[in-house]
Amino acid sequence: MRAFETLLAAATALTALAMPAAAQTLTIWSRSGQGDTLEAVAKAYGESHADKVAVVTLPVDEFVQKYATAIAAGNAPDAVALDLIHTPTFAQAGQLEDLTAWAKGLPYFGALSPAHLSVGTYQGKVYGLPLTTETSVLAWNKDLFRKAGLDADKGPTTWAEWKADAARVTALGGDTHGFYFSGACGGCYIFTFTPLVWASGGQILVDDGAKATLDTPALKDGVDFYRSLVAGGMVPASSRTDTGSDFLSIVDGKIGLQSIGASQIGVLTIKYPDLHFGVTLIPGRDGGTSSFVGGNNIVVTKGAKSVKAVEAFMEYVYSPEGQRLMVRHGSLPARSDIAADVMKGQDPRYDVAVAAIAVGRTPYSPLFNDIINSPNGPWAQMMNAAIFGADPASAIRDGQTRMQDVIDAAK
């Protein structure tokens, strides 16, 4: 009898080993306004794997609060496509799973977007990895350049060239202007202005966001550059009060230069086929380049039971097949080692946007909304006052003090 029981137990164990694990549905939350990139790759994954991925889209302006509320209530989703700027907030709060061992075991870990990893890492541990990728670049209107007697195929590589090009376009007269930026939008400034600072050797935050560094020569020089464009009549007066609603003013065909996002290359190409434009990396004062790297990190909620399922899905996302699919649906590749291959056949202007990943940055701060994005926050208020006000030095000093006060109050 004992021999039979032993054989029965062994057979049962072998049967259990032979049975495949039950398929499951992985739920990922995403914010609105991100296109169909995640949905497309989730659909493809489900068609080729036993597991399925359900993407739940929430309003962008409610997303962070809803995720925080769900965590507190114990009903948060398995994973979230989180705006990468918010990764430090949830990582420092201890609300995300540590993905370090799996992430660093990936043979292509070193090729993943460094900006995504910089904000996805806390105290040496990885809590967020790149899912979708966006960069900022400088666009110019080729037709206006040509009319102004400029080389229509060459964008500026220094601030002096940028200013000279803007002046020549503005000289065309009428309501044509050389440059445009949204002057009352903190998020816009971080996307389009900070690359000037970074490319010139400066920073706005250091020590994992614990110290503000606004009152520096690099930022002051950037402000002076923008002020000179405004003072020279090269920027429309409406820029001063634009909160971002007119961000893509280059579509009017009357703006010579404007910093845009990589995703907007497709928007301009499809919706405005008569707009002939080029793109280049955002230059520093005397050369050098930089970019703001945006997009989403994939994060896993602390205590989630589907960590392995998330890892399996992300390995598909990072595969050449997954990366090609992501690119076709609007994201830049997350892996530099296969970027050239997966970008084949795409608009060559995207090559500039991809190159921006290597030189781009994302500020690290668990208080990003409070100090950067908020229209009443220190960054937005400081930038508007410094560029359009009478005393830029005082505005910068005040912004430095206010930002550091917010940071210190949260410690």
From TrEMBL:
InterPro entries: SBP. Pfam families: SBP_bac_1 (PF01547). The keyword Transmembrane helix does not apply. GO terms for molecular function: maltose binding. Keywords: Periplasm, Signal, Transport. One of its GO terms (biological process) is maltodextrin transmembrane transport. It comes from the Bacteria. GO terms for cellular component: ATP-binding cassette (ABC) transporter complex, substrate-binding subunit-containing. Residues 1-23 form the signal peptide. Belongs to the bacterial solute-binding protein 1 family. This is Sugar ABC transporter substrate-binding protein.
